[in-house]
Design goal:
The structure holds two protein chains of two kinds. In chain A, 23% of the residues lie in helices and 23% in strands. Chain A is of the alpha/beta class. Chain A has three domains: 24-75; 79-321, Aldolase class I (TIM Barrel, Alpha-Beta Barrel); 324-363, no CATH class. In chain A, the strands form six sheets. Chain A has an eight-stranded mixed β-sheet with strand order 8-9-11-12-13-14-15-16. In chain A, strands 2-7-6 form a three-stranded antiparallel β-sheet, with no helix packed on it. A three-stranded antiparallel β-sheet of chain A has the order 3-4-5, with no helix packed on it. In chain A, α8 links the parallel β15 and β16 (312-314). By secondary structure, chain B is an alpha/beta fold. Chain B folds into three domains: 1-219, Up-down Bundle (Growth Hormone, Chain: A); 255-486, Vaccinia Virus protein VP39 (Rossmann fold); 512-715, Growth Hormone, Chain: A. Chain B contains 28 helices and eleven strands. In chain B, the strands form two sheets. A seven-stranded mixed β-sheet of chain B has the order 7-6-5-8-9-11-10, sandwiched between helices. In chain B, α3 (61-86) packs antiparallel against α7 (160-177), α7 packs antiparallel against α8 (185-204) and α20 runs antiparallel to α21. Chain B is globular and about 85 Å long. The chains are: A alpha/beta, B alpha/beta. The complex binds iron/sulfur cluster (SF4). Iron/sulfur cluster binds at residues 46, 48-49, 51-53, 61-63, 66, 112, 162 of chain A.
């Protein structure tokens, strides 16, 4: 079997020992982490995410990838991705960011929350010594993109915030070499590190898991408030932002939640912020919960549209009108999608080729 | 007294098997907890009997029966609701270690009451001149009756909960009339009120449905019932129908993606327009609807749950083009292999976390399945493992053995990575097709798939992903088999959180083969200590106790395992298997006691040895149709010998001390039984395999036999 969007990509990408240029390694990194402070009387406090883990010598923070070594905080996963793919950008999903292009996608072990439904729990809830890690320093990632003409690097799957340094350095180097960077995140990060990072990135997709604080507490193991604050910060900073809301049956799928979500987006992010409703599939701790019915997604779509949101998408429902982009002014189909394929593109630059209305995004 | 003992047998065994069924169902269908449940049962019965025996005043057994009877349906209901207490979300996974702990605790009330009642009835018997073995014999007869009744009722006519109520009602009524004295009108009134109350709860309020409605309060519960294979609940929400089997989502409708994933990939490799498809699983949830759009397909769907088919009729629209066969697949394969041959076989059997599914993913089963396939037929084995973005060690551990089973059974195997990894196998060299040809083939179908189409396949079948998965699978060297079922343990490992106790425990189990040596070492030390101690002839009795416990419980659990792996109907038939075992134990005990001869020890050991060896030579060749008879016979003989061995051990250890308290003997016996219950199938089976386990048990029995002959009679 052959032929795909990656047919330009040779065997070095396969992530398989003996068959690729990148080797697996058992070594963990010892690069110093950023955003921490030393505590009086010993120990450090991590200031990267709102957990603010206090860590004594040789202990790790909650995410399992940052360790105190003699009161120097180090990241154990710098340059050590355990997942490495070439994905269509639509798979992230980013629908208003260079449609039809590919993104070199990577992740390391670890996460700063513990969602019971995590799709990537096999790596996100593991420690780096429990995963098979490739040795790929930032420069190599950028070289790969350049030589293979991949326009974007996506920091994705698990939570990129916990491998901040690796992401930051790669994105910075990428920027210098014309390679774009996108972060797929839960948005559970402190203000300062985000502000610094935004300058290196081109787009962010945030998984807004619910609009209820108790859901974040019970199902996600985090907090909603900091995430909402960071969303506003991203919007204010002007970086391209799209949202995903994973609809989990019985847990975050009431009309009231969809309405509150739509109103919050409208008020703080604007009606032109794209939101994708995606289907839950039984995963991780919620393996015995059924997948989301299409009807539920359509309920969410209807409510958000009624509240005035302009770009509302349904994920993984091929053939549905809500997987395509329409002009909010004239209703013309702008980007017709089917699955991860772009069937037609009626944009003229970033304008509707029918009514010339400007469409938000990076095209 | 004999009637009361009989009633106790009905209550105790009825309670034990119904609770066991309920635990398997409520804890998501895994049979790994059978050993821990039996262990819990033994412990609580022993404690109950000890406390009952020590109480100063003899207990009024009629009142005790009444209280115990009420507890039986209550405990079934509590067990069904326990997952709600342990998790934040209904449908959340329960770790194996937690499930094992629940299975021990859940046995507490019924086990305690059963033990206490035994002591009380034995005391009554001593007044009327009946010996304890007579009480035991009648209890065994009652146990057999309960097992026979439960196997007929539970799942076929009544649900587990309704069967529990039926047994409770029987006990409540009969407890009044098996008393030596006539019941007072107050007793009749109280018993009558309780009986009516139980009936009202079950019939008027439809307790099964009410519990499921409480449990799944965010859904609309359409129906809830038991089949001989499982507990079924059908839910609806947002126009979607959800089929729960043992509280696990088996299928949802509509789910076009799942249906396409099952039906389209194998069709790509079958060139014929007309195609015979055998689906092992349910067709109502998508396959039947797709078949309507694919006129060349003739689908036969096989599933043994006839009651489920009836239950789905009004909920999921029926489709006439699928031919339904209500039979167990193993039985179907043996019967139909000469008659029909299929182009495509789809094994949609769910995750291999149970013995039933693990038994299907074996080369033994594949050999039977191949008899149903045409020479160029294709088998599809869908899995729920995600290999889309990476292949983790845990996924490799599961997919590797599954892949190896197929590779050893078929000439050609191929893989489709993705969120649900697919394995396809055939004896025909049909899998070497270019991507473009795959798409052309899909495009030529009369139905245009939405998910299994170029829109997603260009990403899913990316060479990078295929190479990565091949590399992972080619690394795997273990296989799953009837002899060494590793998948249920690997599945438990996979499901557990990375830092959890379950992971550590299972990793430790598989990390080295230390456990068998440790158990063997303990036995050797015990043997040496008892044989060479000062009063060796007597103390050897303690070793006989241990051996009786270990060998009997191990053989019982091995029989359960084989029964479930081959026939898949343990859920209903465990009742008769336990009933027969109890009957055999009591008859063995009774006659050995009557005989009172040293020859019983040797005779029992020889019988156990022969039964174990005979079993290890024959179990693979038994057809599923006669497996129940086979296991009934095997367990009866094993229990008969075990009962004899317990008496022999008692006669030896307490030789000349007949008035002595028997506590030590029973405690040692309990240790042996606990080792058998906990270690045999739960720990040793996936490490050393069934053959080695049976040989080990034969060696232990044989060594004990030789020692028994060499040491000679006590005294
Ligand atoms: S990034 Fe990790 S170590 Fe730092 S606060 Fe968050 S969870 Fe703790």
């Amino acid at each position: 079997m052959a032929a795909s969007h990656t047919e330009l990509l040779p065997e070095f990408m396969c992530g398989v020992e003996n068959a690729c240029a990148f080797d697996f390694t058992k070594q963990l990194s010892t690069v110093e982490a950023r955003y921490y402070r030393k505590l009086e009387g010993g120990g450090i406090e991590c200031e990267l995410c709102p957990r603010h883990c206090r860590v004594t010598d040789l202990e790790r923070g909650y995410c399992g990838v940052r360790e105190n070594r003699g009161d120097t905080y180090i990241t154990l996963v710098y340059g050590l991705p355990c997942a490495f793919n070439i994905d269509p950008i639509e798979k992230k999903p980013l629908y208003h960011f260079y449609p039809g292009t590919a993104a070199l996608s990577l992740a390391t072990a670890g996460c700063n929350v513990n969602c019971k439904f995590c799709q990537n729990w096999e790596i996100s809830q593991s420690r780096p010594e429990q995963t098979d890690n490739l040795d790929i320093p930032p420069a190599s990632l950028v070289d790969v993109c350049k030589s293979r003409r991949i326009p974007t690097i996506a920091y994705t799957y698990s939570e990129p915030i916990i491998y901040y340094e690796y992401m930051y350095d790669t994105a910075e180097l990428g920027q210098k070499n014309g390679i774009k960077s996108v972060m797929i995140t839960g948005g559970y990060i402190e203000e300062k590190p985000l502000a610094d990072l935004i300058r290196q990135l081109d787009a962010i997709k945030v998984d807004l898991k619910s609009i209820r604080e108790d859901y974040y507490r019970d199902i996600v193991g985090g907090e909603l408030k900091p995430v909402l604050d960071r969303l506003i910060q991203m919007k204010t900073a002007g970086i391209w932002l799209e949202l995903v809301y994973l609809v989990v049956p019985t847990l975050n799928d009431t009309d009231a939640e969809f309405r509150d979500l739509a109103r919050w987006i409208k008020k703080y992010l604007g009606v032109d912020t794209p939101i994708h409703f995606s289907r839950f599939h039984p995963q991780y701790l919620l393996r015995h919960l059924p997948a989301t019915p299409q009807r539920t997604l359509e309920r969410a779509l209807g409510i958000c549209k009624a509240e005035g949101l302009q770009f509302v998408y349904l994920g993984n429902v091929p053939g549905h009108h809500a997987e395509s982009t329409y002009c909010p002014k004239c209703g013309q189909i702008l980007i017709q999608r089917r699955g991860y394929r772009i069937v037609q593109n009626n944009l003229n630059g970033n304008r509707c080729n029918e009514c010339n209305r400007e469409i938000p995004g990076r095209f | 007294m004999r009637r009361r003992a009989f009633l106790l047998g009905v209550y105790a065994t009825g309670g034990q098997v119904l609770l066991l069924r309920e635990l398997i169902s409520s804890l998501h269908g895994g049979e790994l907890i059978i050993g821990t449940s039996l262990f819990g049962w033994l412990i609580w019965v022993a404690i109950g009997a000890t406390l009952g025996g020590r109480s100063k005043r003899p207990t009024v057994t009629t009142a005790l029966f009444l209280a115990a009877s009420i507890l039986l349906p209550v405990m079934i209901a509590v067990t069904r609701l326990v997952p709600l207490l342990l998790t934040d979300v209904v449908g959340e996974l329960i770790p194996l270690s937690t499930a094992a702990l629940i299975s021990v605790i859940a046995m507490f009330p019924i086990g305690m009451f059963s033990g206490w009642l035994f002591s009380s009835i034995a005391r009554e018997g001593s007044v009327t001149g009946d010996s304890i073995v007579t009480v035991y014999l009648w209890e065994g007869i009652g146990a057999f009756a309960a097992g026979a009744v439960a196997v007929v009722l539970a799942g076929n006519i009544l649900s587990t909960l309704e069967t529990a109520v039926a047994i409770a009602l029987l006990v409540i009524v009969l407890a009044l009339f098996t008393n030596e004295r006539r019941p007072s009108s107050r007793q009749k009134f109280v018993h009558g009120i309780v009986a009516v109350g139980l009936l009202v709860v079950v019939i008027v309020f439809n307790a099964d449905l009410a519990i499921d409605r409480f449990k799944y309060d965010s859904y609309s519960v359409e129906t809830s019932f038991d089949t001989p294979y499982s507990h079924q609940t059908i839910l609806t929400r947002d126009s979607s129908v959800i089929l729960l089997t043992d509280n696990v989502v088996e299928a949802t409708s509509p789910d076009v993606q799942a249906a396409e994933n099952l039906l389209i990939p194998p069709l790509i490799y079958i060139p014929e327009d007309e195609c015979e498809v055998l689906l092992i699983g349910r067709a109502e949830f998508g396959i039947a609807q797709l078949a309507d759009s694919l006129p060349g397909l003739h689908i036969t769907a096989i599933d043994p749950r006839a009651k489920l088919s009836a239950g789905l009729v009004d909920i999921v629209p029926s489709h006439g083009r699928v031919f339904k066969v209500e039979s167990d697949v193993a039985r179907f394969a043996t019967r139909m292999s000469e008659l029909t041959k299929y182009d495509v076989v789809i094994l949609d059997v769910g995750e291999p976390g149970t013995y039933r599914v693990s038994g299907i993913i074996t080369s033994e089963f594949m050999a039977a399945l191949k008899l149903l396939m045409k020479t160029n037929g294709v088998l599809l084995l869908p899995t729920r493992y995600d290999t889309d973005r990476y292949v983790t060690t845990e996924t490799k551990q599961l997919l590797g053995p599954i892949f190896n089973v197929l590779r050893s059974s078929f000439d050609h195997v191929t893989i489709w990575p993705g969120a649900s990894t697919l394995l396809l196998a055939s004896d025909n060299d049909c899998f070497d097709i270019e991507y473009d040809s795959i798409i052309a083939c899909i495009d030529s179908l009369p139905y245009q798939p939405r998910y299994v189409s170029d829109s997603y396949l260009f990403d899913r079948l990316d060479p990078l992903k295929i190479d990565r998965l091949w590399a992972a699978l080619n690394d795997a060297n273990l296989s799953n088999s009837l002899d060494r079922p590793i998948l249920p343990h690997y599945q438990a490992y996979y499901r557990a959180s990375p830092e959890s106790f379950d992971r550590r425990f299972i990793a430790l189990m598989f990390s080295g083969r230390t456990v068998p040596y440790v158990i063997g070492g303990i036995l050797a030390i015990m043997l040496a200590a008892t044989v060479w101690s000062g009063m060796r002839r007597r103390t050897f009795g303690l070793f006989v106790y241990v051996v009786a416990g270990i060998v009997s419980l191990s053989l019982e659990l091995i029989a359960f395992y084989v029964h479930q792996s081959v026939a898949g109907s343990l859920y209903s038939e465990v009742a008769i298997l336990i009933g027969v075992f109890m009957l055999g134990l009591s008859i063995g005990t009774y006659f050995a006691h009557k005989a009172g001869d040293f020859g019983v020890e040797i005779g029992s050991l020889v019988t156990l040895l022969v039964a174990g060896l005979w079993y290890s030579h024959t179990f693979r060749n038994i057809q599923p149709d006669v497996l129940l008879i086979y296991h009934i016979g095997f367990l009866f003989v094993t229990a008969l010998a075990t009962g004899g061995l317990f008496v022999a051990a008692t006669n030896r250890y307490y030789y000349g001390r007949s008035l002595r308290n028997r506590g030590l003997g029973y405690a040692v016996e309990l240790i042996g039984s606990a080792i058998g219950a906990l270690a045999a199938t739960t720990i040793l089976l996936p490490i050393i395999g069934l053959s080695a386990l049976l040989i080990s048990l034969s060696v232990v029995t044989g060594v004990t036999l030789v020692c028994s002959i060499v040491i000679g009679r006590p005294g």
